[in-house]
Design brief:
Oligomer: single chain
Helix content: 25-40%
Structural class: alpha/beta
Strand order of the largest sheet: 1-2-3-4-5-6-7
Low-confidence stretches: 24-29, 38-42
Mean pLDDT: 86
Strand content: 5-15%
Length: about 425
C-alpha cells in the first residue's frame, strides 16, 4: 500500500470522527454464495456499531474527501479552514476497504464526504467506489453512505442525510449556502423510493432491496440556542413524515473561534446529548410524544434526571400503577420498567398475582419503580415520601450512574493570597 494512501487515510478518518450517525442495526445481510464480507455472521478509522443479531462489529469510518465547496461555520472541513486536505480516488477507497476486510480489521464501511466540486460529482465518486466493492470485489458486507440526490442506493444498506442544525434560522446563520429545502429533499426522495421498492418486491421477488436498513440523520446539539423541545419536535416530525430509522444527536465540539458559535473553551454538552438520546428512545419504543415530554413552560430537560422520571414527576395523577391490572402502555410509562420487563410482567401475571418481591426477578429497577407502582394495592413496606423527597431520591439514584467529576490533587499554592 502506497504511503500517500496511508497519509490520506490518516487525514480522512480524523475528519470523519464528528459524524455520529454510524450504526448498522436494522439490516440483515446474510451469506451470499461467491461474496465476501458478512455483517450477520460470525486502526485508523475503525469504529464500532451493532449488527442486527446484536454483535458489536467494526466499520471503516472515512470521508471520500475533506475538501468542501461550502463554508459552514460549525464544520471543521469548511472551505475557509486552514487544514490538510485529501481525497481518495474510487479505486483507492475500494482497495483500502477490501484490504482492511481481508486483514479482519473491519466488517463494513461508513462512507461520507465533503462536497468536492459539486454534490453530483461527489456522489458520483462515492458510487463508483461502492460499485467497485459490490461488483468487482463482490463485497457483501454492510455499507452506510451519506445521501446526495442522484445516489444509487441499491448498492448500500443504509442511507443518511444530515440535517446538521435543528432550525432554519441556525442554518441561515451558520451555513448560509444551504437551505432547508435542499437538506430535506433527499429525505423525501429516499422515502418515495423506499415505498416504490416495497411495491416492486411484492410483484418481483428478485428486485434489489432499496436501503434495507432505512435512512437516518444527525443533528448538532449546542451550536445554536435551540431548546430541547424544538429538537424533540423536529425529531418527532422526521419520524412521522419520513419514517426514519434513527435520529442521531452530536454534542457540538468547538473547533473554531467564531462570534456565532460557543467559545473553544466551552465543553461539549455530552449530558444534554445523553438526555436527548434517552428521550428519542421514549419516542421510538415507549409510545411517548414530544409534546408530552416537554412544553413551553419546561422547554429543556432537567439534566439531573432521565426524561421518563421528569415526565413522571410532572404527572403524579397517573400513579401509582397497579402491576396486576395495568396494560402494556401504562407499564411502559413507569420509571424503572422497560420494554422487556413490561412484557415479562404481562406474561408472569397470567400464572397468578404478582408481589413486589417478584418484580426484580422480572428486570424491574425497583430503586426507581418503587415510588410509582403497587402490587395488590400495596407499595413497598415503610416507603414514605413527599414530592420533594421523591425528587431528591431520584436525583441520588441518577447521580451514581453519571460520570463523576475528575478528582484533582490539591496544591499548597491554590488560592494563595
Amino acid at each position: 500500500m502506497k504511503m500517500d494512501v496511508l497519509a490520506k487515510l490518516e487525514i480522512l478518518t480524523d475528519a470523519a470522527k464528528y459524524d455520529a450517525a454510524c450504526t448498522s442495526s436494522g439490516v440483515r445481510r446474510g451469506f451470499r454464495q461467491g461474496y465476501i464480507g458478512n455483517t450477520t455472521s460470525s486502526i485508523a478509522g475503525c469504529c464500532h456499531t451493532f449488527s442486527a443479531d446484536g454483535r458489536c462489529v467494526t466499520l471503516l469510518k472515512v470521508l471520500m474527501s475533506n475538501c468542501c465547496v461550502y463554508d459552514c461555520a460549525y464544520c471543521v472541513n469548511r472551505r475557509s479552514n486552514d487544514t490538510r486536505r485529501a481525497a481518495f480516488t474510487p479505486q483507492e477507497l475500494a482497495d483500502l476497504t477490501i484490504n482492511f476486510y481481508r486483514r479482519n480489521y473491519i466488517e463494513g464501511l461508513f462512507l461520507s464526504s465533503g462536497v468536492l466540486r459539486n454534490p453530483d460529482y461527489t456522489m458520483e465518486q462515492m458510487i463508483r467506489a461502492i460499485r467497485i466493492l459490490r461488483e468487482e470485489y463482490r463485497f457483501n458486507g454492510y455499507i452506510h453512505a451519506k445521501a446526495i440526490p442522484g445516489a444509487a442506493p441499491e448498492l448500500v444498506d443504509r442511507l443518511s442525510c444530515n440535517i446538521e442544525l435543528p432550525s432554519e434560522a441556525g442554518l441561515r446563520t451558520l451555513a448560509p449556502e444551504k437551505t432547508k429545502a435542499a437538506v430535506l429533499a433527499p429525505m423525501r426522495q429516499i422515502q418515495v423510493r423506499s415505498i416504490q421498492n416495497k411495491e416492486e418486491l411484492v410483484k418481483y421477488r428478485h428486485t434489489p432491496k432499496f436501503a434495507p436498513a432505512g435512512q437516518s440523520t444527525q443533528m448538532i446539539v449546542g451550536a445554536t440556542p435551540d431548546s430541547d423541545l424544538h429538537i424533540l419536535r423536529l425529531t418527532q416530525g422526521l419520524y412521522d413524515r419520513y419514517q426514519l430509522k434513527r435520529v442521531f444527536f452530536s454534542a457540538y465540539v468547538p473547533v473554531v473561534e467564531s462570534a456565532l458559535l460557543p467559545s473553544k473553551e466551552t465543553k461539549p454538552p455530552l449530558l444534554r446529548e445523553h438526555r436527548l438520546y434517552q428521550a428519542d428512545w421514549l419516542l421510538r419504543f415507549y409510545g411517548f410524544r414530544a409534546e408530552e415530554l416537554l412544553d413551553e413552560q419546561a422547554p429543556s430537560f432537567d439534566p439531573r434526571l432521565d426524561p421518563k422520571c421528569c415526565w413522571a414527576l410532572r404527572h403524579p395523577e397517573f400513579f401509582p400503577v397497579e402491576v396486576n391490572r395495568a396494560d402494556y402502555e401504562a407499564l411502559l410509562r413507569v420509571p424503572g420498567l422497560g420494554v422487556v420487563s413490561a412484557r415479562r410482567i404481562l406474561t408472569a401475571r397470567r400464572a397468578g398475582p404478582l408481589r413486589l418481591e417478584n418484580l426484580p426477578k422480572l428486570g424491574v429497577v425497583m430503586k426507581r419503580a418503587q415510588y410509582f407502582l403497587t402490587a395488590n394495592g400495596r407499595m413497598a413496606d415503610g416507603l414514605r415520601f413527599t414530592q420533594d423527597s421523591l425528587l431528591r431520591n431520584l436525583i441520588a439514584v441518577e447521580q451514581s450512574l453519571l460520570p463523576q467529576p475528575e478528582m484533582r490533587q490539591l496544591s499548597l499554592f491554590d488560592d494563595a493570597v
